[in-house]
Amino acid sequence: MSWIREGELNLLEKIASNVLKAGPMPKHVAFIMDGNRRFAQTLRWCKQLSIPEVTVYAFSIENFKRTKEEVDGLLDLARQKFERLLEERENLEKHGVCIRVLGDLNMLPLDLQQLIAKAVLTTRTNNKCFLNVCFAYTSRYEITNAVREMAWGVEQGLIKASDVSEALLSECLYSNNSPNPDLLIRTSGEVRLSDFLLWQTSHSCLVFQSVLWPEYTFWNLCEAILQYQLNHKSIQKARELHREEQALQQLEADRACVADLLQHQGNGKPADAKRRQEALHLCTVSREARVQDFLQALKQKRNHFFSDLYGEAVSA
Amino acid sequence: MALLYGLLWRLLLALLRIKRALMSWLRGRLRNRGGSLWERMVAALLLPAALPTDSQKKLEQSSVSGSRADTGSRRAQWLADGKALEKLPVHVGLMVAEEEPSFTDIANLVVWCMAVGVSYVSVYDHHGIFQKNNSRLQEEIMRQQQNLLGLDGSKYNVEVLSNGGDEHQHCVVSCRPTVKVLSPEDGKHSIVQAARKLCHAVENKERSSRDINVSMLDVMLRESKNIPDPELVVKFGPVNSTLGFLPWHIRLTEFVSVPSHRNVLYEDLYGALQRYGVCQQRLGQ
Question: Pathway, per Swiss-Prot/TrEMBL (chain B) (predicted)?
């Protein structure tokens, strides 16, 4: 039930850990586990392997389709877990664990939302390692929410529709405070993503392991990390290629903005290269400023969501 | 000490890469000539599943192009193979995660998919090579259709669609499998374009941001390219990643890996289809 477990690696595990650490290590690992127990131990192993960020799939929006008893059971379990988290607050602070909860939280009963808000706000200032719990989450809902937020930004006059880009969408996801996962591990032999982090894992190393979660060992984790290391160079190359494409697309979008601008400012004469360059610079700078303002507003909106819930919980 | 660990790590990775190369070489040898006794023994140790059984050898022979008289029986065999599966995917994605793709092998895979009864086949590589050489791929598919399925193969009337949207005219036939050539542009970029469209509508006060929901975004994504979600993606190559393949559409997709698409055999594809056939999707349960 605990969120964090004490303990050290034995000698053999320490040696293996040091060998692995000689190579590139994932900075963010995501897990699709079959079963929810024994997670604290895996979190400890990740910490000992110097993996600072972990994301887990705790409750999918699809799970709401189960029978009422099952759903209530799962939500009760969640209540117990988050209450336990608040009890372990000092221990979590000692280890510097910051808990974030990602998902469409307004789908949950209010008392659970308040509990989650408490847990998130309590551990917010910890910064040694990060645990993201996906709760009432599916990737499609997350992407849709990001689009909705950008549309909200347009409605508020903070950004223009032409500012919408891949980078901006990424910043509007629930996971915007985290880098994309380097490694996604799924246990129990299933070989699908089940609507989990579809956007964020487009260039991650996927490792499907047949071991069942309750039997997951340190060595299984090492095996997955080895797979990551074997794939590292090719995935890096693919990521670079994608980044270049993104940059080109952004440049195209900015050039379209320049064409617009020059058309409005122009007096019929074709603009020379210098004017074009200046206009491009202007478009880029003003777009970046708009985007910053919008992201600030979004961050405040999200913070208010949690602090309002917390306020209600405290006054209740 | 750090140096020692560094050396150990390099050694470990080198061993794993050698093992992978050895397995790949053995697989090739076992296919082509049955292999010597020593090779078969090593293979049994490293790749217990790779030794071809008698039924697999039969399948292997059936995939090699032969005389015209054979094509009819091959077609019937493949159709029967498809019916023998517990479930057949409607849309199969062929994802090539290898450098310098081989058009002939991909064309073979496409033709086999269609022969087995798959209605929708998509082809993807993260460099966009297939998309840039769309017409070459189409020619190759036509050629392999003739080779493997005989002249009647034209009954299938493959519709090869790509991003440009210049769909080819075709006559309506009852069974019309479609081949789609995809690239990373069809992934995140398409989602961004749909998002931009929705935001434009909001800018023009045609819509409110609160109207935006999952089904609306889903419909928008299928407006320009009506691609059903792939039930199965067969990934060719050693890279364990989706490399940008249709992020929105792959939420419930099963991923089966095949070591390489070069000189791929029908039995490799059929093996992947069989693995799909036995998987169970619990959908939230």
Answer: Protein modification; protein glycosylation
Number of residues written out for chain B = 285
Distance CA A118, CA A313 (A): 8
Put simply, the answer to whether B5 touches A22 (Cβ < 8 Å) is: yes
Name residues 42-81 of chain A within 8 A of B (Cβ).
Answer: 60, 62-66
Token pair, residue B160, equals 């090869």
Instruction: In whole angstroms, give the CA distance from residue A69 to residue B115.
Output: 46
Mean pLDDT along residues B66-84: 77
CB A170 within 8 A of CB A147: no
Q: How far is residue B38 CA from its own chain's centroid?
A: 33
CA distance A150 to A315: 33
Smallest Cα–Cα separation from B242: which of A224, A192, A26? A192
For A214, half-sphere exposure in the C-beta direction (CA atoms, 13 angstrom radius) is: 2
CB atoms within 10 A of CB B85: 16
Among A88, A37, A85, A86, CA closest to A58: A37
**DSSP label at residue B121:** E
Query: For A106-125, how does the pLDDT look when each residue is reduced to its tens digit (9 = 90+)?
Result: 999 999 999 999 999 999 99
Which amino acid is it at A224? Answer: A
To test the contact with chain A by mutation, choose from B7, B125, B198 the residue with the greatest count of A C-beta atoms within 10 A, namely B198
Distance CA A161, CA B85 (A): 48
Report angle CA A217, A220, A221 to the nearest 5 degrees.
95
Q: Describe chain A by its helix, strand, coil percentages, rounded to 5.
A: 60, 10, 30
Tens digit of pLDDT for each residue in B35-61? 577 667 776 776 655 555 544 555 555
Output phi, psi for A188, to 5 deg: 70, 15
Cα–Cα separations (whole angstroms), residue B133 to A241, B159, B182: 19, 16, 11
Alpha-carbon distance of A121 to A118, in angstroms, equals 5
